[in-house]
Amino acid sequence: MYDRKTDTYWSQFDGLAIVGELSGMKLTMISVDTVTWGEWKGAHPDSEVLSQDTGFSRNYGRDPYGSYYEDSYLLFPVENEDPSPVHPKTFVYGVEINGAFKAYKEDDLVALKQIEDTVGGVKIKVVRDDIGTVRVTNLDTGEAIVAERGFWFAWYAFHPETELFLQ
């Protein structure tokens, strides 16, 4: 990520300013939902989107990454590569609690709908609803815990000590 105002480059996965005026600062993490337009529109029928008529010739209806999601090829090298048989482009939701890292495969959440687990000594519940929204909650306090959605290879590259939930 790039901040034009301060010429700062931010690591997308951990929110750390790595180059520029704000180097060393860390962004406050928030959960972000990734759902299809069809799922969103079904749950929120009055929603609208911006026009695709932007004045640029880009086809906004076509994904520019093509088959990148399915193959194991990475566009750039990573320092920590997971030796397990998990496909590197498996979508996961990763959490960090008390210095402990754990990831949950999106396919497991689709199948199970919810998972109760303990991470960093904290009992949590991970819930995925029908439109794809994922929420992680501390079961003792009711507080929301930020979950980061990303490819397994990227989560593992930043958190090689992570544990992967296996059903």
Describe what this molecule looks like in 3D.
By secondary structure, the protein is α+β, with helices and mostly antiparallel strands. It folds into two domains: about 1-30, no CATH class; about 30-40 and about 85-165, no CATH class. Helix content is about 15%, strand content about 30%. The longest helix has 7 residues, at about 35-45. The radius of gyration is 18 Å and the shape is globular. The two termini are about 35 Å apart. The mean pLDDT is about 90.
The global form is globular
Q: Segments where pLDDT lies below 50 for 5+ residues?
A: none
> What class do helices, strands and sheet pairing give?
alpha+beta
| Number of helices, counting only DSSP H or I runs of 4 residues or more | 3
Q: What's the alpha carbon Rg, rounded to whole Å?
A: 18 Å
First and last CA, distance: 34 Å
Approximate strand percentage: 25-35%
What's the topology here?
Layout: E1 2-3, E2 8-10, E3 17-19, H1 37-43, E4 91-97, E5 100-105, H2 106-112, E6 114-119, E7 122-128, E8 134-138, E9 144-145, E10 148-151, H3 152-158, E11 163-164
Parallel strand pairs: 5-11
Antiparallel strand pairs: 1-2, 2-3, 4-5, 4-10, 6-7, 7-8, 8-9
